[in-house]
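Handout, section 4.2: multi-component inputs.
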Amino acid sequence: MTLLRGRGATGQGSPGSGSRIRSRAESAGGLSRRALLQAALAGAGGIALGGTLAGCAAPGAASSGKTPVMIWDLFSGGDGALMQEMVGAVAAANPDIAVDSTTLEWGAPYYTKLAMTSSGGRPPEAAVMHVSRLAGYAPGGLLEPFDLDALAALEVTEADFAPAVWQKAQFDGQLYALPLDTHPYIMFHNPVIVQDASLAGPDGKLDLDAVAGADRFLAAGRAMAEVTGETGVGWGYQRDTAGCWRMFWGLYSQNGGGYELTPGRPADLDIEAATEVFEFLQEMVDGTVAAKNQDGNAAAGRFMTARTGTMFAGEWDLPMFREALPDVGATQFPAIFGTPANYADSHSFVLPRQAHPDPAQREATYRVLAGLLKEGLTWASAGHIPAYQPVVEEPAYQELVPQRDYAPAAEIAVFDPDAWFTGGGSDFQTRMGDAMTDTLAGEAPPRTAVTRMLSEMDRFLSQPNPA
Amino acid sequence: MTVSNTGVTAPPGQAPAARSAATSRPGTRAGTAGKSLRERDRSGYLFVAPFAIATGLFLVWPTISGLWMSFTNQSLTGTGSEFIGFANYAEAFSDPQVWQTLWHTVWFTILSTVPLVVVALVMALLVHTGLPGQWVWRMSFFAPYLLTSAVVSGLSAWLFQPDIGLLDTWLAALGLGPVGWITDENVAMFSIALVTVWWTVGFNFLLYLAALQGIPAQQYEAATIDGAGGWRRLFSITLPQLKTITGVIVVLQLLASLKVFDQIYLLTKGGPNGSTRPILEYVYDIGFTNYRLGYASAISYVFFALILVFTLVRLMPTRKEA
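Output:
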């Protein structure tokens, strides 16, 4: 916008000023001006050239004699500092490797950059990816599978991972992602409000039985609303399409809903089960149990100022909540429908395909990644559940509160549906969230959300997989 | 997209410039002794070269390769660059999202252009009539224009925040119900237009103010002597004198509004329920989030063609006047 207007404006004024410059230059003699221009051109060329050369140089590498390993991650929040700490520890343990970790902001642009760098042939040695995005990347040849023998040599084997997440990291019988954690969408609670509403167990924390089943959950929400004088349950759905999708998919799985997403065929959902989910959500977002027209920021603000008793959020928000509420509690997602299930995703390491793979770098990369998995205790302090089980079994992890309280969520984790277009930061999640907003706001019946979601799914299924 | 607009913006302002340069040239040539014509022409090329190279690299080449891409199934992930003829265009014309998002862009253009011209004119007239503390007005009207879209969107997100936002808090104090500023499908686009007007009206205001200051004072003096009142002077001198600049502002504003992307992407990401998604965001979503560069190129060329046709139609009367 600025550029365009600037040009238009210059165009207006140019005739007069242009001729004035010309005549003055002629009287002073063209040579000095030419020399000036040449110098400027040479300078600009030099800068451009310097830029290119700098771009070519491998960062912090060869000169020091270390093997460079570059890792991209998407931890721009509080967990980013912890990842840096872990990288530091691993780098100290492997003095022959120069680990260069780059943090990029998470979201759709991250995956755009990752796809572009992979297709460009000079990607980082390893990158963090949501395991839910694997289906869009592995088949297209953007990633390389892990060598299980090389991992086993570093004491990383299938037995060290929870089956659900290990399974999700597979494609075509090969391991394409090395899971770092499971990060479920859970329920935080304020123990004081929970106790005042008589929903606490003997340990003073939320009793999961008191919120099991839709009716009991809504009653508990009203009881907490009475205590706070505002609302009982914190959930922001406005302008948070990812949050909408996490909530829906978790509850839909609890309600036993299956799916079929086969490219070229119409999408299939259990319409009854999905409609029931929206009937429940509409009841929940009634202004008392949960605020009517709330976004994630407002919900978090209410929860941290004790104006609401519980909060649906990703466990990665734990550091933020704990700052406001030091004794904040957290549990796995309440069993609102029959089958226990907890929406989750997993941060995992992937190996983007290199145009010119270097065996020494590959070997160093494996060592770095294995080292990072074993630093899982540091990672757990951000809230994430380490995927590497030996860490979870350490006594130190069992002492982390409230982390240990929601660790069971990993065992009932449900991941995004398998399709090339789904996953964290995908357009699919945005479209699904968009499709349900009207229903959640009470402006459309529950069935409308399901119909809209199905038609959006059909659109994705009718498109070719670009990878 | 920028490509088309810059190319298209140039004519209204530059057409007279080019003409005047052409007429003055022979005279200048006759005046320069010593250097031959050819020599002078050669140095001309040198002067043009830097801009020509930059234009070629960053404007002409991307335009051509984008056009080629729109006939292929090129993906961002590097696969597929087979020629598939007009398949992308056929898909674009039958894709309801293309027409829906195009309408959103047009709707935003209508909502923003009218106040951006009218409000700018009113502000310029008020300041020009000699309000005390001229520089304060000039600065405060123009200052928002200097902000980046990220800052503007961040600020307005807090104003518009559902439930706890500043605007809703004020409304509640007046006993008025909450407005879904950016969460209600019927309101969101108005909110975005409102923010855009606040943000960018300063530029048009400045253009109008400059034009107002360029109107010769003698005309007003003569009119006053003839007994014309303030309103009479406004309608018979000021507004007619602003006709040219209004034409320029309208064209610039239309083109700027048609390019809308950043404030919408940052504020609503095209929501709620896709009701504010402009066509450029759709192109971005298709190309960069869904990796379908070929199809995204085709949509942007359809948009390009529409703007081109629109601009040519708009330019025809201007040419005749000149």
